Amino acid sequence: MTKSALQIARAAYQPKLPKALKGAVKVQEGEATHSVADEEEIKKLFPNTYGMPLIRFVEGESKEYAPMNVGVILSGGQAPGGHNVISGLFDGVKRLNPANKLYGFLMGPGGLVDHKYIELTAEIIDEYRNTGGFDIIGSGRTKLEKVDQFEKGYEILKELGIKALVIIGGDDSNTNACVLAEYYAAKNYGIQVIGCPKTIDGDLKNEMIETSFGFDTACKTYAEVIGNIERDCNSARKYWHFIKLMGRSASHIALECALQVQPNICLISEEIEKKNMSLDDVVTYIANAVAARAADGNNFGTVLIPEGLIEFIPAMKKLIAELNDFLAAHADEYAAVEANKQREYIISHLTADNAAVYASLPEGVARQLTLDRDPHGNVQVSLIETEKLLSEMVGKKLAAWKAEGKYVGKFSAQHHFFGYEGRCAAPSNFDADYCYALGYTASELIANGKTGYMSSVRNLTAPAEEWIAGGVPITMMMNMERRHGEMKPVIQKALVELDSAPFKAFAAARETWAKETCYVYPGPIQYFGPTEVCDQTTKTLQLEQAK
Ligand code: FBP
After folding, report:
1. Is residue 1's pLDDT more than 80?
2. Ligand 1 in reach of 81 Cβ (< 6 A)
3. What is the pLDDT of residue 377?
4. Cα(248) to centroid(ligand 1), Å
5. Residue 114 is among the residues annotated as catalytic for this protein
6. Which residue, judged by its Cα, is nearest atom 20 of ligand 1?
7. CA of 133 to the centre of ligand 1 (A)
8. Is the CB of 251 under 6 A from ligand 1?
9. pLDDT above 70 (res 30)
């Protein structure tokens, strides 16, 4: 494989580890834990893995460990740093005993069920250190949730002599990791399951998981490109740029990018829901900002839009809920309808209110709302062109205002969607270090016989030396939620909180950003250079942890 000069230089980067992980460690157990909500139900569903204590690793005496084999799976969407979790796990496992082996299951959880795997040797691992992507073993979205899948997995784990499985995934995949841990514990199969917090979306976080890996690099990558667009925008002064950002339901990515680049407008889905805003309210909010800038002669600007926005507009949420149920029950019938009659077919089957909302949507967006759901039942929000929907509606509103003599500017829009371009970027120093430490911590959780834990590294705004490594029982993060019409135990998703420091910092500045041109151009991620340039965490984390 031909490599770039950066890739070659970056391969030699030695990720920083917390002090406690640099030598032999011992376990310090904290208090017993309980779930964030619905304690009784979760306790009943996880009799073997509920209530376990928090774990912290501290320096200890070196011990001998019998040889063991470990398996690893990458699950769900790519996030920068996945390869470093695996290299940290590999180095940790080899330090425990050089005879230990690490197996990677291919293309996500499906590889475990279908018995597709490779042994990850030092030669393979060295090719992937500090690189972006999940291509070392591939990823997939197969949902591990059925007993026959658990049993198929057990067959291959037993055959390969695997003592523990590490699942690197988001909230849904870690929920499934916990269910699997409980199942293997209940069956006494002697296989431990450990989770690792991955997702660029930043919505897998809580008191013990300060951030999911990949969020830092992805946001910095998007912020670089948005900054470039802002500079272009401020140079040509003729376009409004509507920029949709990945992040699924949560607006963390949009908020973090806004804090980094100071756009004219950034929508926060959680706030729109809280304020019960309609689509027209959102459009009016943007149009007012466009008109106010036009009055100053500024017919240009930038709007950041979280990709999940549409699901947070109450009327759209109701429509999507009805569409979900309707399409689940009539999938085949709908698929058989001729393409040019599908819109009419949907309208004629919805309740009156929802039919009216659906009928008001532009053709493209209406069709996108009926596309297949992902295996976890989520609408594939990355496929819905909210940026076009909003700019089209803003354009219409401004034209109406112009006709009434209320607006005199020019409005011309450009559209962008940033998501995939950030998910496989070479990890920032922060993500390279954090991921390596997460993988290394997972090896210690395994060595210490733990199962149903998520690898946790905290105190992340301090230098890596002072980071705190340990484990959090996954049941501690769970509550009961309705999924596919049934109540299920799931890890609680962390959405943007309107009383959090990052949101407040944004809310305090946004009026100025809307009217004036206060753009910040962050530039590309730097891997080599002064620490204040290369080792900064996200603004979100800095504001959350500011003392
Ligand atoms: P995970 O939740 O699996 O980490 O994936 C996050 C994400 O990148 C979302 O931001 C986005 O909506 C989704 O994946 C896109 O999924 P796909 O890669 O299947 O198109």
Report:
1. no
2. no
3. 64
4. 7
5. no
6. 382
7. 13
8. no
9. yes
Please tell me if the CB atom of residue 247 comes closer than 6 angstroms to any atom of ligand 1.
yes
Pairing of strands 301-306, 240-245: parallel
- First CA to last CA distance, the chain: 47
Is the per-residue pLDDT at 435 higher than 70?
yes
At residue 376, the pLDDT reads 61
Residue nearest to atom 10 of ligand 1 (CA): 247
Question: How many Cα neighbours within 13 Å face the side chain of 383?
Answer: 13
246 within ligand 1 shell (Cβ under 6 A): yes
Q: Is the pTM of this model over 0.90?
A: yes
CB of 432 closer than 6 A to ligand 1? no
Handedness of CA 365, 370, 372, 375 (dihedral sign): positive
**CA dist., res. 42 & res. 66, Å (int):** 34
pLDDT digits (tens, 9 = 90+) for 377-392: 667 777 888 999 899 9
Q: Are 70 and 164 in contact (CB under 8 A)?
A: yes
Ligand 1 midpoint to CA 127 (Å): 25
Q: What is the pLDDT of residues 271-283, one digit of tens each?
A: 999 999 999 999 9
pLDDT in tens, 299-333: 999 999 999 999 899 888 899 888 888 888 888 89
> Ligand 1 within 6 A of 313 CB?
no
Which one of the listed residues 172, 201, 431, 433 is annotated catalytic? 201
Nearest CA-CA partner of 539 in 420, 430, 433: 430
- The sign one gets for the Cα dihedral 432, 434, 437, 443 is negative
Pairing relationship of beta strands 162-169 and 69-74 according to DSSP bridges: parallel
Beta-bridge mates of residue 29: 55
d(CA 154, CA 476): 25
Confidence of residue 360 (pLDDT cuts 50, 70, 90): confident
pLDDT band with cut points at 50, 70 and 90 for residue 476: very high
The secondary structure of 25-76 as a DSSP string is EEEEEEEE---SS-HHHHHHH-TTTTTPEEEEEEE---------EEEEEEBS
Report the residue among 201, 203, 219, 491 best suited for mutation to probe ligand 1: largest number of ligand atoms under 8 A from its CB. 201
Please report the pLDDT score of residue 282 as a whole number. Answer: 96
CA atoms within 13 A on the CB side of 293: 30
Report which protein residue has its CA nearest ligand 1's atom 1: 77
Is the distance from the beta carbon of residue 74 to the nearest atom of ligand 1 less than 6 Å? no
